Amino acid sequence: MDLRVRTGITAAALAESITRLRAAGCVFAEDEAEVLSAAAADEIALRAMVERRALGEPLEQVVGYADFCEVRVLLLPGVFVPRVRSELLVRMASAATSTGSIVVDLCCGSGALGLAVRGRRPAIELHAADVDPVAVACARDNLVENVYQGDLFEALPTRLRGRIDVLLANVPYVATRHIPLLPAEARDHEPRTALDGGEDGLDVFRAVISGAGEWLAPGGIVLSEITEAQAETALAAVRDAGLAADLGHDDDLEACVVRGQKTVGPVR
Ligand SMILES: C[S@@+](CC[C@H](N)C(=O)[O-])C[C@H]1O[C@@H](n2cnc3c(N)ncnc32)[C@H](O)[C@@H]1O
Prior knowledge:
Structural class: alpha/beta
Mean pLDDT: 95
Radius of gyration: 20 Å
CATH superfamily of the largest domain: Vaccinia Virus protein VP39
Low-confidence stretches: none
Largest sheet: 7 strands, mixed
Number of domains: 2
Number of helices: 10
Strand content: 15-25%
Strand order of the largest sheet: 5-4-3-6-7-9-8
CATH architecture of the largest domain: 3-Layer(aba) Sandwich
Distance between the termini: 59 Å
Bound molecules: S-adenosylmethionine
Helix content: 25-40%
Shape: elongated
Order of helices and strands: HHHHEEHEHEHEEHHEHEE
């Protein structure tokens, strides 16, 4: 086994971390011990971090960052960990922007999606908002400016009304009855408001879609991740709101994104 000794972290401390993580059932104990030891200032800090991880806290919350779509996203305990599948949202949003595009990351959590889009398209004007003050603090760490707190569109400056080119809204979309089926990492360490989308999982989605037409620029789009099972209901909600609707898929990521567009001509 290659136990790389880092400054201040001995091979013995690394081996002890692996043993503790294995005992706690971590499948990737060696890899996680490496990540934790790289993030720990010293062995005392490492032991504390290993213990948090062993008790089930997501690795990203313990080390304080997640690597997502080629950007490093700072994370605080209790803030939703960006999911790999959300790369599809980032790709679809990036493809729809050009210099000066106004992009809003609504329900931004850590701000991961906006940060990743800005990483690919630095010339956009980015705004982000979330209802959760801890998420807002985290998003401010990542995005620095134009981060607001409040309920959906109420958080946004009114000058953005009718001017948003890309509205990213990775809303909570787990049906309430499915929450107990989530991994304990999510259930116990991510806030319910970040996960629970109501009876069919689409309550917050529907609220976003019903306001989107008013906030989008002509031709602007709204993008939301959903499950395949929600696709037909979500498409119908988008069309009912007067927007053109279609779906994006990535089978490798197991991702499904519904896109609504404020058309200038007749709605498809
Ligand atoms: C699934 S998480 C997504 C976070 C982030 N966009 C990401 O992909 O990593 C959903 C986020 O929506 C926020 N949220 C839930 N209800 C909201 C509301 N009514 N207004 C604003 N934000 C809300 C939660 O606080 C949480 O941060």
